[in-house]
Amino acid sequence: MRKRLRKANIWPYLLVLPALIIVMAVVFVPILNAISMSLQNYDLRRPKQIAFTGLQNYRQLFSDKQFTGSLYRTVLWVVFGVGFQFIFGFALALLLNRQFRFRGLVRSASLIPWVTPGVLIALMWRWILDGNYGVVNDLLIKLGWIDKNIAFLANRTTALPSVILTIVWQGIPFFALMLLAGLQGISPELYEAAGIDGAHSTQKFRFITVPSLKNTIFVTTMLRVIWVANSVDVIFNMTEGGPAYATQTLSVYTYLKANTLNMGYASAMAIVLTILLLIFSIPYLHSMFRDQGV
Amino acid sequence: MQSSVARRKHPFRRFFLLILPLIAILTFLLFPYYWTLVTSLTPRQELYSANTVYWPAHPTLDAYGKLFGQFNFLLPMRNSFVVALTTTVLSLTVSTLAAYSFSRFRYRGRKFFMVLFLTNNMFPTVLLLIPLFTIMRQLNILYTPMSLVLSYTTFTIPFSVWLLNGYLNDFPMSLEEAALVDGANRAQAFMRIIFPVLVPCLLATGAYIFMQSWNEYTFAVLFTNDRNRTVPVALKNLIGQLGVQWEMLTSGGIITVIPVCVMFFFAQKKLVAGLTSGAVKG
Amino acid sequence: MKKLLGILVAVVMLLTMIPFALAQDVTIDYWFWADNDGYAATMQEMIADFNATNGKGITVVGSQVPWDGGGYSNTVFTAAMGGGGPDVATWKLTATPAFVANDLLAPLDGYLENWADYEQIEESLWEVMRQVGGGEKVYVMPWNTQVLYVYYRPSMFEAAGIGVPETYEEFLDACAKLTKDGVYGFGMRGATGGQEPWGSFIHARGGTFEDLTTPQAVQGMNDFIDLFKNGFTPPTAPSDGFSQIIDNFKSGLTAMTVHHIGSSAGMVETFGEDVGAFVFPAGEGQWTSMGDTENVMFASCENKEAAFEWLAYLAAGKGQETWCKVTGNVPVAARVKEMEEFQNNPFMKVSIAGAPYAGILPILDTTTEWISGVWPATVQQALLGDITAEECMEILQTELHK
Prior knowledge:
B: mainly alpha; two-stranded antiparallel sheet; C: alpha/beta; 7-stranded mixed sheet
């Protein structure tokens, strides 16, 4: 029965087709092109010397100290960036799901970081964290926590946390909204039944909310990890990857290399990042596909 | 609709478990916006004073006047709206179809397609720009809003498909199966049973698509010209070699946020629980 | 409602897609960046003026492209490589080698031969244009220059009891003496673009860009590091870019900083009389950076004759005059330089006084990467004490001449 259904039914394919056609029409050639660039010394500053070099770019990568350093910082950037986004975003979603006055207003106001043009985000945060007249320094001094301004973005130890703070700020509304939408799908009867059985709110959260949102949580965190790992503009506009590489992640390094036209090397880096992200996704995918009983 | 559980809570508890954390998170989220507002209202002489200004002594709306007068900010805003709305409708439609297929059917190539979509978004766009530009030129849509709609649709489909697939998987399959048994075809079952439940999720995914298209710069600067520039490009024009035109940039930021938030204010009314419970009971 | 919106969207899109090839005349696509919205408006006025007065049926269509911290050149490059892009574009010399290597620019020599105003522009400047294009051909049309000099606050100098430094030693001394009461002597630029003021330090000790590892050049680097380590610059210096050094100067945080005449209007607006300028003083050697803005014509341009008319209008015609008057940049055409407005402006005087010492970095195909990546990261390491001045200069040397 199952086999017959699979053979006869072209509907699932037809449903996927429009999305597939659009995506393939636009990115198929460019991605193939990038793969082929990664196998050449494709430096557009010296176009006449471009030739096939095999895995040369990849070999060079692993002896490049900047690359390994960037890889390490990418991990920190993603783990802390997405981690805090998720925690605060989930908390916000739960709060926004409760009943209170002006809820609609609060819900749309909490989207603001996400709506703010990216151009502005980095500049505003740069100004807020400014080491000379930034408001954060001013507040910390007024609170008596520090006695001297901290140059957050010029200091190796504080630069990375500063850019992470910014990306966390920007990403909270994403999780809040996505999880809030997921919460709407949970039947209130489940909570009521649990309430009758005498469950506490923490128990309800653990045994009803989290399991019901499992797929949504999986998907949103995975997508966000990919997105944050690839994001460039917050870091680039706040610190350009500096000071002294302190905030240079792989995507920023790739961006710099591509912008200085060393496309071959940049492509190799991009492909390595893609493969790493795929490897990271495997457990997610595995568990998701298993749950669905493929 | 009122949750009876929330009603029974002690007001003291409610303060510590709802109001206080809400205020804390909102303060963090909204402070930079407040700061943007202050900057946009501060006259230039005050902006460069050594003391931190929490509210300008002589607030001025000059920057806003200039923004809508000489700078003609309504044009990029209109362009951004056209692009973002078109993209949202297009991307959401095709993504929902694909997500439904992934979630409700099991077939050969399914996993492959899903991973293919995912991989597509792992690749940094900066390396795809030159061939993309060529493609847009060959399709003859360069310097028209269509080029942005097409590229944003392409780059939002993968995430949207995955998000919607995730939501769909969280919905019990039993609902539709019941309808299918009752003799409805799949399309009817989808419209009657799934669609109403999916509305909040479509809204959230739509918001994601909208924001991506609304805030995108790299494609926007390449694929448009002065007639159809979008908001991020217009704002970036305010950052030259001689520094940032703070008052204009920040007032632009303030203005950009408002219509989107107002739109969401009306849309979020659909973000309510109970749709499912209705379906279950019905 | 949704339907209505859909129709609306469709109509708007159709309207914008109507091709505007209705005109019979020649159209030139021009891309430019503008440093503020006022300059952008000026450029559109100039375009309108040119279109109305050229008498050859040439219509220039200008599109403003964001400067984007230098990302402008990448935007233009991507478009040109993708087979599109403009006919003529505003330019920075550093971008030239990559464009020439990919055969994207049109050589101008043929048009220059017959151009009546060729002599208006100094031969030395033409020579620079030839150099960046590989030595044989001119691809780049001069437009205006900006000579970097030191901005200072006379009131702060007075309070510190010092005069305008005449030598490099005095300059370093001034940085120290001006640092007090929350004011820093020198607004240092440690992020991208900082190589321009930095070059003055290297040359003041007798170093050159040809060999950055000489003891003289290293000494200059040491001076640079010491200013930061001794606290004569704001502690944010390693991450300060253009915007920050100007903001810091304008807020009274720093007593001196290095920039060109482009920012003088804003300085005067902020300080009135209490801002002055002097040429970066001489030590063993003397050098200051010449900022530049030019225009180029692309190989893909179909109406090169017409495009050259527009280039000429900007380089020596009415466009030269209008643009330099509004932006305060140093004109390249002799006729315009002699005009009264340019002769009486005090900042213009300093710019002209600095002109004999003004130079540019060697424009190699490695230069853009060196500027945007190598210089900031390496110098930041030196400032933060990760590497010594010698190591720093070693890296800078290898990466530039790779």
